[in-house]
């Protein structure tokens, strides 16, 4: 039995390569619009050159400023995973930098999502390996624990469960439940086609704004 604060669970089944490929081709904004516009990881910033990210969540909850559990979590990561780290949003110590990010990439991890601080951002920004974090500090981490692996975590005000599908681009991050992903992909594709048609109508000078005043009148009547 694991002591309190040191729980570890096996990683959840992975999303298929076809599903991840489909998600990388869709803007996070399109996916978000098909999740009631109410989901999303807030307050984290990308620290890499632009690249679409999609992968299966391996989650870590760690004491603020301590990365021992993150080092252990690498043993649970497989090619195609995204490592999602709940560091409590604490920015006084960096949870990782270029060395740990490079090691994660060598494992086939698709990206890192860190609700905490990182360092070595100059090196990270030169690469397209996805790294999202809440902030930056030069101060390094402790390695005392405790920490938990593959438990539900809260990252950027969003609950992420092990096995959720994490997607990211320059607009931000989403966690999609595996049971919802095909429906979300289908809706995002339809909306993408609709938005492409709208952009075409703008270029041709026929963009329809006839809905604006009726909608405004309806809202003002309340």
Automatic annotation (TrEMBL):
GO biological process, one term: methylation
GO molecular function, one term: methyltransferase activity
Residue sites binding Mg(2+) per the record: 120
Cofactor: Mg(2+); a divalent metal cation
Keyword field contains Methyltransferase: yes
Residue positions binding substrate: 97-100, 119
Keyword vocabulary terms for this entry: Magnesium, Metal-binding, Methyltransferase, Transferase
Keyword field contains Transmembrane helix: no
Gene3D superfamilies found in the cross-reference section: Ribonuclease E inhibitor RraA/RraA-like
UniProt cross-references to NCBIfam families, sorted A to Z: PRK06201.1 (NF004850)
PANTHER family: 4-HYDROXY-4-METHYL-2-OXOGLUTARATE ALDOLASE 3-RELATED
Name recorded for this polypeptide: Putative 4-hydroxy-4-methyl-2-oxoglutarate aldolase
Source organism: Paraburkholderia piptadeniae
Species lineage: Bacteria, Pseudomonadati, Pseudomonadota, Betaproteobacteria, Burkholderiales
